[in-house]
Specification:
Layout lengths: L1 H13 L3 H26 L8 H18 L3 H23 L4 H21 L1 H4 L5 E2 L9 H23 L2 H11 L1 H6 L4 H27 L1 E2 L6 H14 L6 H19 L3 H15 L3 H16 L1
Antiparallel strand pairs: 1-2
Length: 301
């Protein structure tokens, strides 16, 4: 029911002209990026301040596959995901043995490493000029791409929902809530963390590849701190432990930011105040706050 209503609203937005379509495509990619981080935080209990690393790897992987090998959209996206997966598989062996602030700072260091490589490896990445002129989406198939993107993102939401409700999801939640007890009960703690880390990175790589396709270019800023912060805001605004929280967060960030930017010179400051207000009044996010309000109302009745 909820998924159907969301699909109808987003499908309507995709058909409201080029500007609305562009914003909705941005929203869907940010939603996918937020979902990838939500997998890591809500299921794995892992905190990342550098999720932009995998987003950028997916974007550059897809762009390089297209420019140098002539690959089309689907194989280029697979190439970007494979690059993000490979780096996550290598670094995850170390990162997933950390937790808390140590993991957060190491993930940030990885993102800075990717950013530095993208900025300075001019022969491969174009440096600060980036990789431009990508034609991964044909002009005549732009509308079809938007529909396909919507279907892909909704499918990811559905699959993640089923996965979180499965026995594997229950094991991950037990690991998140009580890691020592989970280890004592025989759960393979490090292996589960590693698996969720790699899955999260691969989804972020897919989001990065789609971003490169939509924008037709990739720049080092894809690996910047601002991208990681956006991913965090998406799930914090909506609610880390709410499946549809990433949708609410991405809508506030993309659509809300665009609407504020139309009439305000200092719209980023206003958006910052809105974000602060949500975090103070409802630390569990918009959906979490609405759920708590409904529960209090129900108990009062």
């Amino acid at each position: 029911m909820v998924q159907g209503l969301v699909a109808l609203v987003l499908l309507w937005a995709l058909g409201q002209g080029d500007y609305s379509r562009s914003l909705t495509e941005d929203l869907l990619v940010m939603l996918l990026l937020g979902l990838s981080l939500q997998v890591m935080m809500a299921l794995g209990g892992l905190v990342s301040f550098g999720h932009a690393a995998f987003f950028a790897l997916g974007a550059y992987g897809a762009a390089l596959a297209h420019l140098h090998a002539g690959w089309g959209l689907l194989p280029a996206l697979v190439a970007g995901m494979a690059l993000a997966l490979a780096v996550a598989a290598a670094f995850g062996l170390v990162l997933t043995r950390m937790s808390g602030v140590y993991l957060a700072m190491l993930s940030l260091a990885l993102a800075q490493l990717i950013w530095a490589g993208a900025s300075q490896w001019v022969g491969l990445t174009g440096g600060d000029n980036g990789l431009i002129g990508l034609q991964l989406i044909a002009a005549e198939s732009r509308a079809v791409f938007g529909w396909g993107l919507l279907a892909l993102v909704l499918a990811c939401v559905a699959l993640l929902g089923r996965w979180s409700a499965s026995s594997r999801g229950a094991a991950l939640q037990a690991l998140r809530d009580a890691p020592l007890r989970a280890a004592a009960s025989g759960l393979p703690v490090n292996r589960l963390r590693y698996q969720v880390f790699v899955l999260s990175a691969t989804l972020a790589g897919l989001a990065g590849g789609l971003w490169a396709a939509i924008k037709g270019a990739v720049f080092p800023s894809a690996a910047g701190v601002a991208t990681s912060v956006d991913a965090l805001l998406v799930i914090l605004l909506g609610g880390v432990h709410q499946l549809w929280g990433a949708l609410v967060g991405s809508a506030l960030l993309v659509w809300g930011g665009a609407e504020l930017g139309r009439g305000l010179d200092y719209w980023r400051g206003v958006l910052g105040l809105v974000i602060m207000g949500v975090m103070v009044l409802s630390p569990s996010g918009v959906l979490g706050g609405l759920r708590d309000l409904w529960l209090r109302t129900r108990r009062g009745a």
